[in-house]
Design a protein that fits this description.
- The protein has about 250 residues and is α/β, with parallel strands linked by helices.
- It is built from 8 helices and 11 strands.
- The chain has a 6-stranded mixed sheet, with helices on both faces.
- The radius of gyration is 19 Å and the shape is elongated.
Length: about 250
């Protein structure tokens, strides 16, 4: 049996275990998937060895901090500076960013006049990468002025009105903190806005609810999540196929 998992903190809300358990069963693959709470990412080699992992996903707060512990990055993961999928191949840890695929599936058809990206972490970096790739102008909002174009205190109604695509790339509003929402001037959101929240649990975050009250079109992170998960699955299966072919040749 092969072993996979999700590395991160506070994983009780995650859909990944059920998704991959069902996926492996439906495909007739002898593998399992575990939620692996990690307090210190520097212990990743011990975790891989103890659990005999063939690959794993990475979530908050380790999408960026795991990079120094990997042996290789895909071109996209290196460009983004964040990893959410790792495959173990011939003892080497290779990092990928399948968040890109999930984000592309969600925003490729949206208004490209300008995006306001909330957050500056690993998920935000993937969103920024996709916006650049699709020639979508964007501004980044951060609690730290040095890391973004605006702080939340600087978000005026004019700024929000100018950006018809608002993307929340922070965990604000995620279960169990479902009453929380990013600090925006919600009165500036209109029926011309599209609000995309990477949060998927709850299905309708407070951000989406308040935006819908203003007439905005909204989408949660479930499509992105499912798409990036399938992309991870393909990476792992491709690696298994290559290893099997190497074994036959040897």
């Amino acid at each position: 049996m092969r072993h996979y998992g999700l590395i991160g903190k506070h994983l009780s809300h995650s859909f990944s275990k059920n998704f991959f358990t069902a996926k492996f069963a439906n495909e007739g693959i002898d593998a399992d998937y575990a939620l692996i709470e990690v307090d210190d990412i520097s212990t990743i080699d011990n975790i891989i060895a103890q659990r005999e992992l063939s690959g794993f996903n990475v979530t908050i707060p380790y999408k960026e901090s795991i990079i120094p512990y990997l042996d290789e990055l895909s071109a996209e993961a290196e460009a983004v500076g964040a990893v959410n999928c790792v495959v173990i191949k011939n003892g080497r840890k290779i990092g990928y960013n399948t968040d890109i695929t999930g984000i592309e599936a969600t925003i490729e058809w949206l208004d490209k006049s300008g995006a306001l990206i909330l957050g500056t972490g690993g998920a935000s970096k993937a969103v920024q990468y996709v916006c650049k790739k699709q020639n979508i102008p964007f501004s980044v909002v951060s609690r730290d002025k040095e890391r973004g174009d605006y702080t939340y205190d600087e978000l005026t109604t004019d700024v929000v009105a100018e950006h018809k695509l608002i993307i929340n790339a922070t965990p604000v509003g995620m279960s169990p903190n479902v009453e929380e929402a990013p600090e925006l001037p919600y009165s500036a959101i209109t029926d011309k806005h599209f609000v995309f929240d990477l949060v998927y649990n709850p299905p309708k975050s407070m951000l989406l609810s308040r935006s819908e009250e203003q007439g905005a079109t909204t989408m949660n992170g479930m499509l992105m999540l499912q798409t990036q998960a399938i992309a991870s699955w393909h990476i792992w299966q491709r690696a298994e196929k290559e290893l099997a072919e190497q074994t036959l040749v040897n």
